[in-house]
Amino acid sequence: MGNLGLVAQRNSNQHIRVYVGLRTDRDWHERSRVALDDTDAVRAYLLSRFTGWSPDLLGLITDTDSGYVNRPLYALPVPHIWPHTPGVTLLGDAAHLMSPFSGMGANLAMLDGADLAHAVAKQPTLDEAVAAYEDVMLPRSAEAAGGAAEGLDGAFAPDSAQQVIAHMAGHH
């Protein structure tokens, strides 16, 4: 069903972390009068949103001893670019904040740091280093952020299973 999704992640010690995804307003809990620290109220709200889903999948919402953590996803527009400012630049999430739906954020942040350090060591001036770094980083981050946006949209589409498979097959 569109705008809803369940993501299960296998973790260490035989634990599974489940993310319950809703495409909704940031203040959904206030509008719905749901206290985020009231596990039963959050669970009831989530079950009301996932009406019609398989009971097997609903177990990912109900079969938990822990509470729920509200974690909105944020992303910068794609592409996120800026005019060159001598001696100043951005890297990591500051330069290309994106959803985790392509798994590239941390990798790009580390690559940004390495590329900026390389440019500073190689270029004769700091301004030339920043410009050289941005020439590499901006197109790369725009491509990754586009993929993350595509992955996020596909994960919460009515045909999400097919879209996620196509996204993963096309990018990995």
Q: What characteristic shape results from the CA principal axes?
A: elongated
Strand content: 5-15%
In this structure, how is the largest beta sheet organized?
A: 2 strands, antiparallel
Structural class, by secondary structure, is mainly alpha
Q: Could you spell the SSE succession in H and E letters?
A: EEHHHHHHH
The helicity comes to 40-55%
Q: Which strands sit side by side, in order, in the main sheet? A: 1-2
Low-confidence stretches at least 5 residues in length (pLDDT < 50)?
A: none
For the residues shown, what is the average pLDDT?
89
Q: Give me the count of strands.
A: 2
Q: Compute the separation of the termini in Å.
A: 26 Å
The Rg value, from CA coordinates, equals: 20 Å
Number of separate helices:
7
In short:
With 172 residues, this protein is mainly α. The chain has helices at 28-31, 39-49, 55-62, 93-96, 105-122, 126-155, 160-171; strands at 4-10, 16-22. The longest helix is centred in the C-terminal third of the chain and has 30 residues, at 126-155.
Secondary structure layout:
Blueprint: E1 4-10, E2 16-22, H1 28-31, H2 39-49, H3 55-62, H4 93-96, H5 105-122, H6 126-155, H7 160-171
Antiparallel strand pairs: 1-2
